Amino acid sequence: MEVERVRHLDCSEPDKFGMHEYYYEWDDYWFTDGALFLLARSHTDEPEEADFMGINLDGESREIALTDLSHPLFIAAYAYLLTEGKVKFNRFTGKGYKVMDTLSPNEI
Known about the structure:
Layout: E1 2-11, E2 23-33, E3 36-43, E4 49-57, E5 60-62, H1 72-83, E6 88-93, E7 96-100
Parallel strand pairs: 4-6
Antiparallel strand pairs: 1-2, 2-3, 3-4, 4-5, 6-7
């Protein structure tokens, strides 16, 4: 598995006091194994939380399904995020974010 972590920043222009109307900073984690990759995101204001945003195989993107939770790439990505201090996990779906029951380290 290859891992790439990319920091992103989205904010308004600072006002005369240096304050921003909005400020979002997050890390995207790209986990890759051949033609398969998945994306997890963690916002810096909630460093203990990670959201699994989607999975892509041969250019076909979709949300992470419950059946994907047993895939070796997902298990490896989950284990990696645990080492990064993430303890709360969500899946992004067409209906918003769904809380994932946390797997114990013994299950991965």
